[in-house]
Amino acid sequence: MIRVAVPCRACLSGEDLDWLGDGRSVSLALDLPTTVEVVPGAPSGAPEQAGSDWPSQVWAFLKERLPGTAGPAPAVRVASEAPSASGLSSSTALIVALFRAFAAAAAAAAAVVADGVAATAATDDATLVQWAYEFEFARFNGGGMDHLAVAEGGALLIDGRERGLPVVRERLEFPDDWGVVVVDSGTRKNTADHIRTVRAQLAAGDPALAAYRAEADRASGAAWAALRRHDHEALGAAMSRAHDAMRDHQGMSTPLLEELRALALRAAGLPLKLSGAGGGGSLVGVCPSGELPGVVARLADALSGPFPGARVIPTRAAPGSRSARAGERVGVSAAG
Question: Where is the GHMP kinase C-terminal domain (predicted)?
Answer without folding.
Answer: 225-299
